[in-house]
Amino acid sequence: MATAHSRTAARLMLSPAVILLLLWMIVPLGMTLYFSFLRYNLLMPGMETFVGFENYYYFVNQPAFWSALSNTLILVLGVLCITVVGGILLALLLDQPFWGQGIVRVLVIAPFFVMPTVSALVWKNMFMNPVNGMFAHMAKSLGLQPFDFLSHAPLASIILIVAWQWLPFATLILLTALQSLDREQQEAAEMDGAGWLPRFVYLTVPHLTRSITVVILIQTIFLLSVFAEILVTTNGGPGTASTNLTYLVYAQSLLNYDVGGGSAGGIIAVILANIVAIFLMRMIGKNLEA
Amino acid sequence: MGKITLNQVRKSFGEVDVIPGIDLTINEGEFVVFVGPSGCGKSTLLRLIAGLEDTSGGIIQIDGMDATDLPPAKRRLAMVFQSYALYPHMSVRKNIAFPLKMAGMDAAEQDKRVNHAAKILNLGAYLDRRPGQLSGGQRQRVAIGRAIVREPAAFLFDEPLSNLDAALRVSMRQEISELHQTLKTTMIYVTHDQVEAMTMADKIVVLNAGRIEQVGSPMDLYRSPANLFVAGFIGSPKMNLIDGAEAAKHDATTIGIRPEHITIGGDGPWEGVVGLSEHLGSDTFLKVNAGALGTLTVRASGEVMMHHGDTIRMAPQPGKILRFGADGNALA
């Protein structure tokens, strides 16, 4: 199988796919990099000139940038905290034997199948709306003043919506990990005098670390680029209170017609994603080694 | 310390009575082996004693105290599992110290006990490794170490050797027997392997379909099995069971004769044609087709050169024929 000849043949046959994937990645990245050095405004087509790092300078020095950066990180961290902790608790609950387990598990996974735009709109109009929303009704029935979530706590509301979407994913992965927990180990610990909490701390949590790592890594990739939920709920506002880096890039290039500035923002987002990735791999990557 | 009494202990899973009712006394310091075919309820019985399953009825007493409703941790029993059940994220040292840590023992005493157990079990060199870096036999020793440090009233072993290869099984068997000699603690050992039962036990409890078929020392069971089930289960190769005319001659429905109690040659009363012969060097096992008697297994010592198709005469050794009645029980 692994003769020199068969290896060469294997490489040859793999190469079209690999080259296609490489082009798929490298061409958009290269073009974004190229645009980021141009003065490229959609209102003045055909007037592109090379401006060096000017786009980067103006993108970073606009007042919205730093708040967008911190909003991005708060959004990622907030959703990760809620989904990991909530996912562990939900998984522990769903791991218990109870009647109707199969149906409940399917229902729990359901939010993951709802499109982000749809779920965000449902949350905005049916739950968080200060006049017609469910939460407003609940507040009014208790005699309280309805709270306008999307105006007064825009970022927290978006974190809530996104966490609701990603909770099933975390639950699912952690549940499968829980199910592979060795029953004899639990019994041995029980005989060793370990109560529920020590068993959770000394056996369950170490067993789950690898799955938690997977959840964190995968979710971080997707959470850094949350966009649809912001677009359909707050449009990044009020002001820039719920603008993250992705939304800022969108605003720069399509609302301000400044493709060059948007591209610079895109490259900054790529750099940020890589910094986060390096940090994550340093911190928790070792959990993935067998 | 370590006397366990079962009084009409029952266990049913839903409609199924796994254990319809067992009375048994395990004396202090005894090495008791529960043996039986798979599905006979021996592991369930052990788990009932351990407290990992709730009884459906009856009383379990440990050292004269009713332990039926005590949680497993309060019964002062230590268990060694078939899969070892080591904690994979902890070093060997932490694994062994875990029950002590849970008991809130101070660090110095923990260290002392762990080192003592490691010395008994020759684990000194591995204390800082993870279970995943150990071989099967070493893992089993760690599991035993984790049981020893608690200084329990009794040890429970649930088929501890079935994941090991044949050679290691023999040496671990001896180690466990020696451990019992050293600690003199009550041990209850579950196995489906009658060789383990015969070699290790002070007392064998033969179980079948949740019922005790016979309790006795290994040689009792070998010499005078109470019924056909025990007769067929204890001893390797299996006892020859003959019914029909030959049994009627001895006033029994079935007679049993062990392969090692049949003498070949001379002018024995039985005649047969050698079918398969297994030459082990020290012994030779012959499958002899003896007509109306059926196929008999005969054990001959040493290198007996007999082959397929040879006709031989055989004689049962006097006084070694066991007689069973129509109900399967032994006749006096």
Can you give keywords for this protein?
heterodimer, A: 290 residues, mainly alpha, MetI-like fold, two-stranded antiparallel sheet, 13 helices, 73% helix, B: 332 residues, alpha+beta, Rossmann fold, OB fold (Dihydrolipoamide Acetyltransferase, E2P), 5-stranded antiparallel beta sheet, 9 helices, 18 strands
What does this protein structure show overall?
- The complex is a heterodimer of chains A (290) and B (332).
- Chain A is mainly alpha-helical and 290 residues long.
- Chain A is built from 13 helices and 2 strands.
- Chain A has helices at 4-35, 54-61, 63-95, 101-109, 116-127, 134-141, 149-152, 154-179, 183-191, 196-223, 228-233, 245-255, 259-284, and strands at residues 38-39, 49-50.
- Chain A has a two-stranded antiparallel sheet with strand order 1-2.
- Chain A is flat.
- The mean pLDDT of chain A is 89.
- Chain B is of the alpha+beta class.
- Chain B has 2 domains: 4-230, Rossmann fold (3-Layer(aba) Sandwich), CATH 3.40.50; 237-324, Nucleic acid-binding proteins (OB fold (Dihydrolipoamide Acetyltransferase, E2P)).
- Chain B has a 6-stranded mixed beta sheet with strand order 6-7-8-3-9-10, sandwiched between helices.
- In chain B, helix 2 (92-102) crosses helix 3 (107-120) and helix 2 (92-102) runs parallel beside helix 4.
- The longest helix of chain B has 18 residues, at 166-183.
- Classes of the chains: A mainly alpha (290), B alpha+beta (332).
- The A-B interface holds A 182, 184-185, 187-194, 198, 202-203, 206-207 and B 50-52, 71-73, 77-79, 81-83, 85-90, 98-99, 102-103, 146, 150.
How can the largest sheet of chain A be summarized?
2 strands, antiparallel
Shape of chain A: flat
* Beta strand % of chain B: 25-35%
What is the spatial order of strands in the main beta sheet of chain A? 1-2
What is the second-level CATH architecture of the largest domain in chain B?
3-Layer(aba) Sandwich
DSSP summary, beta strand count of chain A: 2
How many structurally independent domains of chain B?
2
> Could you tell me the number of beta strands of chain B?
18
Mean pLDDT of chain B: 88
**Unreliable stretches of chain A, pLDDT < 50, 5 or more residues?**
none
Look at the helices and sheets of chain A and give the structural class. Answer: mainly alpha
